């Protein structure tokens, strides 16, 4: 079984390798999936670079990847919601960079026929973030007007759409080149952060501000946009100086959040949710290396997907 792994921490071209691995053993609570597509995420890049080594120990060679989609080939006896032959969406602890993966049944749902392999694989982590942030972290405190910074990214674009499904007024910022995309997703108002000051234009208008950028100056503008006493949620670092009273929250994964519930919600929106796919690359080591290198730069909006030909 072909898999793509890292042999150490370091540059993509130096440490990503192709390995042959034995199929993992199954138990009655797991499902085996032959993968058709998997996504490359910023988290994978951070793991490979060693940014997580202080709190996550890896045993090399380590197969990266959390997000994938494929066809069920084996089902544990306690699993009833999928069967052999089903097309499925997978959220794994690791190991989706390969031809197959074994995952707990609670981390897999059936893929709607109308959802492409690329979207099924690419939406997993960003959707889990958007859904759990809105549904669980903020919940009833979110308010009627929400600001999404980084609205053209994978998480930001899904946030805009999910919030509009819930009837929220959505303010959004992204670069000028992505304005058309963000408006098409449903944003009520838009500011190009590279041309105008979103903090001044949207000052004191949002009940909740979600900073879905890579960090940096967005926090300053976000605090201006948040109403006093509102919510400020960061996917990266919170502002070092909190200049306005409010609830300042960092979002991260939690064992209290159900992957099955979140992925089921994604499948229910399959016909209306849009995910921008930047590039689909063939199932090769060179593609995986190229995907990592692209994510380290300033890539165009959209997900990078590795896909096998069937």
Automatic annotation (TrEMBL):
Domain of life the protein comes from: Bacteria
Domain Enoyl reductase (ER) residue range list: 10-306
Keyword terms of this UniProt record: NADP
Protein name (Swiss-Prot/TrEMBL): NADP-dependent oxidoreductase
